[in-house]
Known about the structure:
The termini are far apart. The strands form four sheets. The protein has an eleven-stranded mixed beta sheet, sandwiched between helices. The chain has helices at residues 3-7, 53-58, 82-93, 112-124, 154-166, 178-183, 204-207, 210-222, 244-251, 299-314, 319-327, 355-368, 387-398, 414-422, 436-446, 475-495, and strands at 14-16, 25-27, 37-40, 63-66, 76-78, 102-107, 130-133, 138-140, 143-145, 171-175, 193-196, 235-239, 255-260, 267-274, 279-284, 289-294, 337-338, 346-350, 373-377, 401-404, 431-432, 452-456, 463-466, 469-472. By secondary structure, it is α/β, with parallel strands linked by helices. The chain is globular. The relative contact order is 0.08.
Amino acid sequence: xxxxxxxxxxxxxxxxxxxxxxxxxxxxxxxxxxxxxxxxxxxxxxxxxxxxxxxxxxxxxxxxxxxxxxxxxxxxxxxxxxxxxxxxxxxxxxxxxxxxxxxxxxxxxxxxxxxxxxxxxxxxxxxxxxxxxxxxxxxxxxxxxxxxxxxxxxxxxxxxxxxxxxxxxxxxxxxxxxxxxxxxxxxxxxxxxxxxxxxxxxxxxxxxxxxxxxxxxxxxxxxxxxxxxxxxxxxxxxxxxxxxxxxxxxxxxxxxxxxxxxxxxxxxxxxxxxxxxxxxxxxxxxxxxxxxxxxxxxxxxxxxxxxxxxxxxxxxxxxxxxxxxxxxxxxxxxxxxxxxxxxxxxxxxxxxxxxxxxxxxxxxxxxxxxxxxxxxxxxxxxxxxxxxxxxxxxxxxxxxxxxxxxxxxxxxxxxxxxxxxxxxxxxxxxxxxxxxxxxxxxxxxxxxxxxxxxxxxxxxxxxxxxxxxxxxxxxxxxxxxxxxxxxxxxxxxxxx
Length: 496
């Protein structure tokens, strides 16, 4: 594609320099630029791409997209906002890929990863080729690659969707973060179905207030378009039990389908029963009611399943097929994941890192726990400080043995983070063990038969960020090591 053809979609631009080069790629990282690339200057938190334009030209850039004139020997296209232009140009360059597949976006504070995986399984099980973009990885068919952000930037997204189309993907499911919506990373994405899980406190370090946070999530629904294309209706799937859904329903022109437990909803669960082995409930839809038993534990997972069921129904997947698919799910990595090495107590690793998700996890544990409930909880550094005392309060209220420890302290002093947590539970009983590995080992050493240990916060993550150093650390691995050490020690004692 030639430069002038590509930039024709951008209004009120200025062109500095002559030439209409043929473009081989579009890049926003000067290190990825090759001969014939279009380089887009993006202002980041620490680096301004405008300062790297000359380096991009040295690497072979044929043209530059900029917000100001530049002293380079290739054409420079000056636009008001390079980040927004990047989304438009990427969508154009890659041939509008999201218009060639069914795109499902999932947003909300908690549950995005699980809901995304449940939805993807529904479509895989009807023999569709699927794509998945989220916190854990990007998947195209059976090929898996790493992702750095829950929702990548617009250029990476459009390139990924192009690759999906090239490999025959029919339905793509993606997690959509509030940061991505606010920053415009998903500009150019043509969503067919948008799902809302819930809204609870998180990311206030970025959004400032819950009102701003709610607004950011709502952008997914307000941007679904204002028309009703024949043969391809759009749907907003909303949690009827969350007050924010009423705001999102007013904001969207899409067809609204609701799910829930307590309020009236199109897809509803009643007669809920939860055990350590799974959950069962009566599923009520506009057409029928059916008893359902699933291997996923907890009310929060029932919500996740209801969201997926609603998506399946509007996608015309038969209900019997939907239920069969969900019955086969074995859970999502790091989401209420059991660590079992033959011990007589339960160890669960969960990604719960907000007050609400921790409360949901611990409430679920309390529904089947027979004895002590240990909660190992930390809070990340350089993130929302206001939730730290709230996390501690939840741990103290819903566990018999709360333990506060480190969780990606980043540039902050781990002790200062723990001070923020413990300030919220003055006079309460808890333990404070700063080193996360030591905390896990100590709790597993103490645990008795039928006790339950919840290791919260990191879930699938296999690292700790301490200062600027990223070290390997996986809660599941550490817990298994501690379990084996305890069992080996017990066996030695029995032989003596």
